[in-house]
Write the C-alpha cells for this entry.
Amino acid sequence: MQQLYYYNFLPKNLKTIIDYKIKRFINEKIFIGEYMQINDEIKCIIAFYACLPSIAYKNFCYPSLKYIYVYPHTIIKKHFNQNGIIKKEMLISGESIGDAVIIAWNEAKREIYHYQKRNVIIHEFAHELDFEEGIINGIPIFAFIDYKHFKEIFNESFKKAIKEKILDNYAFTNRAEFFAVTTEYFFLKPKTLQIHYSELFEEYKKIYKFNPIEIEKKYKNILDFK
Ligand SMILES: [Zn+2]
C-alpha cells in the first residue's frame, strides 16, 4: 500500500478504518483471475478503491457483491440478437453486474499509478453502491437518509450536465453513469466537480462523509514538484 499516494495522503484515523475495511473486503469477496494470476498487490489496490467511497461507513462491505473478476486487458463485450448473432462489440475496462464486478487490470493500473480524473475501480463500485439500494438510477444506498433532497439535486445536476457537457461524455449516457463518473470526479478531481456542480459536490460530501479537496491539494504539490 505504501506506493499508493491516495492511501498515504489520508489522515491517520481514516487510514485505520480503511485498513480494516480492506482486510474484510479481501476476506469476504472471491477474486477470480481470468487469463492471469491474482496477487496481493491486485487484491489490495482493488479493495482500497472499492472501499474508498464507503470510508465513512466502517461496517459497510457491499453485501450483495460476491465476485471480482480481473482480466489482464480491456475486455471485448459482445451483444447478441435473439438468433445468437453478434449485434455489436464494445471495448470495456470494467463492469458492475450486481453480485460481480469486472475490472481490466491494465486500465486500473494505468489510472492508479498515473494520477488522473478517471478510475475504473471507483467507477464500478459506485455502480455497486447504486445497485445496493435496489434500482440502478444514480441514487446510492448512502443517500437514503435524505433521499428526496439528494434526488432533487442529482436530477437538476444531470439536466444541467447534459446541456453543458463539461465532464467526460460518458457521464451523459444516463443517470447511473452520471453518478458513477461524478463519483470518480469527487474523489479524484473534486475542485472540477465543485466549480461546475457545487450543489452536487456538497451532497456527495454529505453522503460520502469525506472531504477530498485536501487530498487533491497534496497530489498537486507532488505533481508540481516533479
Ligand atoms: Zn459505468
Q: What stands out?
A: The chain has a mean pLDDT of 91.
